[in-house]
Design goal:
The protein is mostly beta strands. 2% of the residues lie in helices and 56% in strands. It has two helices and 42 strands. Residues 1-23, 340-346 and 383-401 have low confidence and may be disordered.
């Protein structure tokens, strides 16, 4: 299940007694995006701004320090308030009502799905997924306590069906045949099709019953496990799942169980039967590629496997982070802190791009600059390009790296660090706070940056000669 996870960062601004140049320069344009109330502050890591061609759109999460509440704001509108941080599944600031957010208010759970608020429910929403694991936001189910019963309801393309004892979404083969969802009534699973047609199910899925977990393979249930965490089927019917039994975790591949491990994660299975997974044993981490256990590491992240059998992952060893591409290792981060998700972890997650024909990943030589390795060729890369933010990897640069880049013709330079309550362009100071995001826009021939100035979220545009 893919979800957008906001990483909390804290941007320190230290006054040094220097006054920034007044913003009366005709080259400089300041646009106010949002104003906070007296007790509110923006969680800077939970923040995204898109600015291009004079379109200023943004989303952020605001914390009310007096009432201890959080508010999700989308393009200037307050969408959802929560005693905890609202969970954002989907975000597209260029789309009208381009958000899917879950939140809790007065001890009841709600969901706002692209502008439509759904009634209180118990637990979280469970979304259907496409073949690539992306959530489908008009197809979901949820549970709701009604009297002494826990009932399940399913929302599918605008309609809500239920109550049921349980609900599940179909595998890829059944979905292609028209099955919309599965439901349990009186200990029997049924498949629901278009035009309200239903039939007894012979699909494969996992489910819990009387404190045990089971895997149903083509109508044949497995024995009960303490828990089943993951089940994946290929289109040809091959399957892999992870389960826990007697304090150990196992991987079952097409009916063949592995030996027990302390912990198993990141399972992969291809149509051709190639597989890979990571596991932990005696405090060390390993990677299993088609039955071959690879080394022992301090940690492992981001395992990938292609249909043709190419693989990649990142790992930590002796305080450094490495990327392994088909067994060839490259160091990507020096003095790696595995627990510091506000800085180093962006090199470990969503970094590697792997295909049948090639690969790429970002790395740090310890100089404070970012580099990219593309199929073995290295090049220096700016943190932000083209006026659009990169998801995942670049979140860390809001707080931990200075912005220092030039215009295309190298005639003008932009510089900002968190210790300065302004930015510097060609040796002169502008604004009242450091940049939390900055870039050079080639089409406009301008430096553009976002900042939080007191209670105001703003965007600046400085046009060059």
């Amino acid at each position: 299940m893919k979800k957008i996870l906001f990483i909390t960062l804290f941007l320190a601004t230290l006054a040094d007694g220097t006054n920034a140049q007044n913003n009366t320069n005709t080259k400089l344009n300041r646009t106010l995006l949002f104003t906070l109330s007296a007790n509110e502050e923006i969680l800077l890591g939970e923040y995204f701004v898109f600015q291009k061609l004079n379109q200023n759109r943004f989303a952020c999460i605001i914390y009310d320090t007096l009432n201890n509440t959080y508010t999700f704001v989308f393009n200037g509108k307050r969408i959802a308030q929560d005693k905890w941080r609202p969970f954002v599944h989907y975000l597209n600031v260029n789309e009208e009502n381009g958000y899917v957010v879950e939140y809790t208010w007065q001890e009841k759970n709600y969901a706002n799905i692209k502008g439509k608020v759904y009634v209180p429910f118990d637990g979280e929403l469970y979304f259907a997924e496409d073949n690539e694991g992306n959530e489908i936001y008009d197809r979901f189910y949820y549970r709701k306590k009604e009297g002494e019963n826990i009932n399940y309801y399913v929302h599918y393309s605008g309609t809500i069906d239920g109550p049921f004892d349980k609900v599940k979404f179909p595998d890829e083969t059944a979905a292609a045949a028209g099955c919309e969802y599965l439901y349990l009534l009186a200990d029997q699973w049924y498949e629901h099709y278009k035009n309200d047609k239903n039939k007894l199910s012979q699909q494969s899925f996992r489910y819990s019953e009387n404190g045990k977990w089971y895997v149903n393979i083509n109508g044949n249930p497995s024995r009960g496990y303490d828990e089943v965490y993951y089940l994946h089927f290929t289109e040809s019917g091959k399957y892999i799942y992870r389960y826990r039994e007697n304090g150990k975790e196992y991987v079952n591949i097409n009916g063949s169980p592995s030996r027990g491990y302390d912990y198993v994660f990141s399972l992969h299975l291809t149509e051709s039967g190639k597989y890979a997974y990571c596991y932990k044993e005696n405090g060390k981490y390993y990677v299993n590629i088609n039955g071959d256990g690879i080394s022992k590491y301090d940690n492992v992240h981001d395992l990938q496997l292609t249909e043709g059998g190419k693989y990649a992952y990142s790992y930590v060893e002796n305080g450094n982070l490495y990327v392994s591409i088909n067994g060839k290792a490259s160091r990507v981060c020096y003095n790696y802190d595995n627990d510091n998700e506000e800085h180093d972890a962006y090199y470990a997650y969503n970094n590697i791009q792997l295909t049948e024909s090639g690969f790429s990943f970002y790395f740090d030589k310890g100089t404070g600059k970012l580099f990219q390795n593309e199929n073995g060729k290295e090049k220096e890369t700016p943190y932000i390009e083209g006026g659009e933010a990169y998801w995942g990897l670049f979140y860390g640069h809001y707080n931990n790296s200075p912005y220092n880049f030039s215009s295309t013709n190298q005639a003008h330079e932009f510089y900002s660090i968190c210790e300065y309550e302004y930015v510097v362009i060609d040796g002169k100071c502008y604004g009242k706070a450091p940049a939390i995001r900055a870039w050079y826009d080639k089409e406009k021939n301008a430096f553009i940056w976002n900042a939080v100035e007191g209670k105001e979220l703003v965007v600046y545009e400085y046009k060059l000669n």
